[in-house]
Inverse folding.
């Protein structure tokens, strides 16, 4: 069972043995400053949503595929936005493939 | 064990300051060795947060803990059969000049956890202090 984005972040951080300060040092806002510890704690408790920029950096620090974080955040990665999908059929086919893969993995 | 003059307990455990210091030192140094492989002095603030995260169910921020009369920077909430939840005032994280206060609050709250681990070893009958529901230590 997948967790919420916040639960996933905190679990992964602990798996890697990282303190909050070590994570925020590697994640910067658009102004170039590191995100704050309170912001990270809010993310870990699902009280705030990260921007794409923050999410991509978090994925690097936590050594996970950013697609996982996008999925848990309930968003599409930037390269899969509405402007990059050519047609409704293409989108539907993509989802069908995704469902098929999930179903296949569930089989014993 | 010594007699308790507050009337809350028939008697209570008592430690000398040097004994408490030794217990604290043992706790932090063993954590530092396990986690970093050596003892880092001064103890980094993040090591204290990681120690709390290891033993508590959650380390979270809290807002508006203080009022006009009381300044409260942290509390630890206990529920029977569960790990405690530690909350630290958001302003301590946000205001860099209060780092020392943050460190003492973190260690103070960890002390509540440490107490909760030690006390069950003693057989004494505590009175109910906080009424029903979860008990908190500020």
């Amino acid at each position: 069972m997948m967790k919420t984005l916040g639960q996933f972040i905190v679990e992964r951080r602990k798996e890697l043995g990282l303190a909050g300060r070590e994570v925020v040092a590697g994640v910067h806002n658009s102004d170039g400053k590191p995100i704050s510890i309170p912001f990270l704690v809010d993310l870990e408790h699902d009280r705030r949503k990260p921007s794409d920029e923050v999410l991509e950096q978090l994925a690097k620090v936590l050594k996970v595929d950013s697609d996982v974080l996008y999925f848990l955040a309930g968003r599409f990665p930037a390269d899969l936005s509405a402007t990059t999908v050519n047609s409704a059929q293409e989108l539907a086919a993509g989802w069908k493939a995704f469902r098929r893969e999930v179903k296949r993995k569930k089989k014993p | 064990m010594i007699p308790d003059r507050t009337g809350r307990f028939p008697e209570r455990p008592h430690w000398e300051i040097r004994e408490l210091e030794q217990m604290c030192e043992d706790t932090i140094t063993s954590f530092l060795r396990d986690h970093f492989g050596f003892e880092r002095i001064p103890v980094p603030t993040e090591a204290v947060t990681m120690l709390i995260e290891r033993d508590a169910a959650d380390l979270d921020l809290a807002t508006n803990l203080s009022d006009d009369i009381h300044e409260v920077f942290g509390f630890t909430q206990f529920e029977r059969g569960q790990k405690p939840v530690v909350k630290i005032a958001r302003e301590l994280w946000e205001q860099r000049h209060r780092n020392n206060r943050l460190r003492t609050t973190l260690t103070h709250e960890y002390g509540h956890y440490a107490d909760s681990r030690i006390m069950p070893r003693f057989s004494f009958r505590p009175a109910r202090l906080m009424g029903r529901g979860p008990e908190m230590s500020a």
